[in-house]
Amino acid sequence: MSKMKKFTAGLLCLAMICSMTACNARKSNTTNSATDSNAQKEKIRLLGYSYYESTMNILRDQLTKAGFEVEVNLQPDYSSMVTARDTGEWDIAMSGWTTVTGNPDYAVRDIYASYGEYNFGGINDSKIDELIDKAAKETPAEYVKTYKELEDYLVTENAYTLPLYANKGIRAINNTVVDESTVHNPQSRSAFWEKYSYVDASQNETRPLVLTQMMGELTSLDPIQANDGSINQLSANINVRIVNMTDDDQIVPDGSLSRNIAIGEGNNEFYFILRDDVFFSKVEDGHAVNTGVRVGAEDVEFSLERAADKNSVASHKTYNLHNHMSDVSIVTDIEELKGVNDSDTGKPVFETLSANLPSEIKTLTADKTQVDNANGVYQVVKISTEEAFPQVLYYLAHQSAGILNKEVVTEMNSKFDVATYDPTKDVCYGDSAAIKSGNNYLWMSGPYALVSYDDYQVSFEKNPGYMAGTENEAKISNVTIKFIKDTSSAASEFRSGGIDIMDSVATNDVATLEENKDFTVFKYVRHATTFCEFNMKNGNKFENIDLRKAVLYAINQEEYIAYNNGLVGPLYSSFSTLIDTGNKLEFNAEKSAEHLAAYQESVRE
After folding, report:
1. What is the percent of the chain with per-residue pLDDT over 90, rounded to a whole number?
2. If DSSP states are collapsed to H, E and C, what string results for 69-136?
3. Model-level pTM?
4. pLDDT at 527 > cutoff 70
5. What does the alpha-carbon distance between residue 567 and residue 565 come to, in Å, rounded to a whole number?
C-alpha cells in the first residue's frame, strides 16, 4: 500500500473513531441528563393507614406529576400508623379532625397551637398562638375576621398544613330493624345511643344493637386521657356531662346532668342547676348495676377541676380544652343567684335556673345525698373563667368533660405518683388494658355502662340508674360495637345483616347500599376534615416554606371530590366547615414547580 493510501486509511479510521466517540458522548450526555432528571425528583415519605389508601394513591399521583418521588408507607391500622409516626421517619402524614364540639376554637387549638396535643407536625409559630387566643375571647360576630386572618397566615402565607377535603357524614341503617325516626345525625357530637329504638320495640330489651368502628385499641376510658376515634363515641355514652349539643350544634341542658343553664353578665360565670335522677352504674358478674350513688355537684367539681389541671393525670390529652376554667364551685347561697344577672335576659340568674323545675327552689345543698328535687332541694355548680369565654360551654359538651365518681377515681389513682407513673406496672383509672383483661373497675354516669372488651368488640348495657322513667332513659338495653378495620369489610357485614348501623360509610359504597330498599343512607353536614401534616421537626426538610408550597400548589381537590362521587367537599383549613372565609385552595402546577426549584436551589447553595 502506498504512503498516500495508508494516510487516507488512517484518516478514515480516525474519523470513525471520532464519530463513534462523539456518538458515545452524545449517548452519555443523554443518559446523564435522564439520570440528572431522576436525581432532581424530590423524595417524600408519605405515611398513612389502610382507611386512607385511596386518598394516598391520589395524593401520590399528584405529587409524582409535580416532580416528586413518593415513598408510601401504608400501615394496616391507626395504632400501627401512630407507632410509625412517633419514630419521626416520615415527611407527610395523613390526618383527620372532626370538630366534635361544634366551635372553631376546638377546630384549631390542639392541632395548630405550638402546645397542641395533636400538633404532630411541629407547627411552632407565636403569631398562630396569638390569633387562636384572640379569637377565643371574641363573640361569633367578631371572631370570623380573626379566624380569616388565622387561615390566611396558616395556609396561604406559610403552608403549615395540607388541606385535602371536607368529609360529609354518611350513616347507614337497616330500616327493617332500626326505627328510622329515632336516628339522629349530629353535625359535631358523637351519636347518642339512648334515642335508638327498634322497629319492633319489643326487641329493645333483648336484642343487642350492633354498631362498628375501625379502631379496636382503646386508648383510655378516662375521658381526659384520650381524644381520638377509638373512644370518643364510647366515652360520650358512658359518662354524662353538664350540657349537651343538639344536632345543629346548639348548647342545651336537654339529656344532660343539668336542668337549666345560666350565663352571668360578662360571659365569664356559668351556672348549672343539677338533676337528681342520675346514678352511677358499675359492672357486677358481667352486668351493669345501679350503685345507688347519685351523680352530684361534688363529682362535677372534681371531674372539671382535674380536667383543668395539667398535672392531674399522666398523659392529659384534653387539657387545652379545659384550661380556661379558673374555678369550679358549689353554690349553696340562693341570694348569690339572685344578685347576678343573666347575660341574655338581664334578669337574675335565679329566675333562669328556676324555669320548668319539678318544684320551686327552696334550698341549695352541697351534699348530694340530701338532694330532693321534688321537694325543692337542689344543687348548683358555678364555673368561672379568667376572661370572657362563652365557647367554654362547647367544651363542657365534649366527652372529655364527662362526670366521674370522685371517690372511685381518687382511690384508684392514689396508688401511684402521677409524676413517676409507669404504664407497664401502674394501673390508673381508665386503663383500657386492665379493663380488657377483666378488671372492669369503671363507675359510669351515662346512659350506658361498658361491660366487656376484647380484641373483637366492646359491649355495653343500659345504666339502670340513668334518668329512669324519663324520655332520656335508654330504650335499647344492649349495644355492641364490632371492631372492623376497613369500611369495605364493614359494608359487607352490614349488607349481610351482621351490623345494624354503620356510622361511617365509605363514599364508594353509598350507591350500592342505596339500591337496597332495606337500607337508609343518611348524608348530612359533618364537621370532619381530611388533611396532611408536614413534618417540621428536628431539621426535617419540610421546615422549608418553598418545599411546603410546592406540595400545596400540586394539590387538585377536584380529583378527590370526583373520586368520592361529590360526597366530599373543598377544604382550606380545619374550620372550613364552620366558617366561610372565602378561601379556596388553588391548584397551580407552575407555582408548584417554581417553589420546588427555589427549594432545590437553596439546598444547592
Report:
1. 87
2. EEEEEEECCHHHHHHHHHCCCCCEEEEEEECCCCCHHHHHHHHHCCCCCCCCCCCCCHHHHHHHHHHH
3. 0.84
4. yes
5. 5
- Distances in Å between the Cα of 70 and the Cα atoms of 37, 60, 63, 452 are 15, 6, 7, 42
Largest CA distance in the chain: 135
The half-sphere exposure of 524 on its side-chain side, counting CA atoms within 13 A, is: 16
Place of cell 371536607: 166
Are residues 77 and 215 in contact, defined by beta-carbon separation less than 8 angstroms?
yes
Q: How far is CA 386 from the centre of its chain?
A: 26
- Total number of residues shown for the chain: 605
Grid coordinates 411546603 are at which residue?
Answer: 548
Residue whose C-alpha is closest to residue 476's, from 236, 248, 237: 237
| CA distances (Å), origin 106, targets 112, 113, 248, 306, 527 | 10, 11, 16, 19, 11
Question: Three-state SS string across 245-281, please?
Answer: ECCCCCEECCCCCEEEEEEECCCCEEEEEECCCEEEE
DSSP state string for 455-520: SSEEEEEE-TTBSTTSTTS-SSSEEEEEE-SSHHHHHHHHHTTS-SEESS--GGGHHHHHTSTTEE
pLDDT digits (tens, 9 = 90+) for 479-513: 999 999 888 899 999 999 999 999 999 999 999 99
Give the pLDDT band (50/70/90) at residue 27.
Answer: very low
CB-based burial label for 362 (10 Å; 0-12, 13-18, 19+): exposed
Give bridge partners of residue 245 from the DSSP assignment. Answer: 251
> If you average pLDDT over residues 405-416, what whole number do you get?
96
**Contacts by 12-19 with C-beta closer than 8 Å and gap 24+?**
none
Do 279 and 296 contact (CB within 8 A), yes or no? no
Q: What grid cell was written down for 299? A: 363529682
Average pLDDT, the chain: 92
Convert the pLDDT of each residue in 564-603 to its tens digit. Answer: 999 999 999 999 999 999 999 999 999 999 999 999 999 8
Best CA proximity match to 460, nearest among 228, 288, 239, 577: 288
- Each residue of 115-149: pLDDT tens digit? 999 999 999 999 999 999 999 888 888 999 999 99
Q: What would the grid cell of residue 211 be?
A: 354498631
pLDDT higher than 60, residue 244: yes
Task: Give me the sign of the Cα torsion angle 233, 239, 242, 246.
Answer: positive
Cβ atoms of residues 163 and 571 within 8 Å: yes
DSSP 191: P
pLDDT digits (tens, 9 = 90+) for 37-65: 444 789 999 999 999 999 999 999 999 99
The pLDDT of residue 487 is 87
Cα(387)–Cα(284) distance, integer angstroms = 45
Measured in degrees and rounded to the nearest 5, phi and psi for residue 460 equal: -135, 150
